[in-house]
Amino acid sequence: MAINVVWFKRDLRLSDHEPLKAAISTGRPTLLWFNFEPWLVNDPHYDERHWRFIVESIRDINRKLKAYNTQIYVTYGDTVEQLQIWHQQFSVESLYSHQEVGLLNTFDRDKQVASWCRQHHVNWFESPTGAVQRGLNSRQQWQKHWYETMKAPLATPDLARIQPVKAVSVDYRTLPKSWFERRPSFQYGGSAA
Fold this sequence. Notes:
The chain is 35% helix and 16% strand. It is of the alpha/beta class and 193 residues long. The protein has a single domain (3-180), classed as HUPs (Rossmann fold), CATH 3.40.50.620. A five-stranded parallel beta sheet has the order 3-2-1-4-5, sandwiched between helices. The mean pLDDT is 91.
């Protein structure tokens, strides 16, 4: 069975989500996925509160996705290795995600994912994050582009049309317990909050 995979990174929402909208619009079965990467979990730029916010956000999204008989499947490990597992299990035809901007190590990971996609004939559709444009030699038109992006219509996925894929998620009990401890002084993850 050929499927789409929507790879959630920092974009933990269901509204205004171009990759999710594009994947659903194909009519192909679609797997929703978030991967905790050990090297990123251990990166000094991140803190336990970051991972707690992600867990809370995923759980909030999954409560909403129950109505559509699907969820974000969570894995823990190397991203390329997990893509290979999905590909062997389902035959990934297309990968959808937002472009990630920020750290060099995530950009290097994305280059590895792009190489894997080319080797396996998987179409990878990356949507820009906000108005950020990677790889520009000049920023002369950035303000014009920013205004165009901010005025663009929202990318609203039609969740009622999603064709769910059933997979195996990580057992949350294997993740650090501190990621599940409620901290009232911190913002709670998820759009419901």
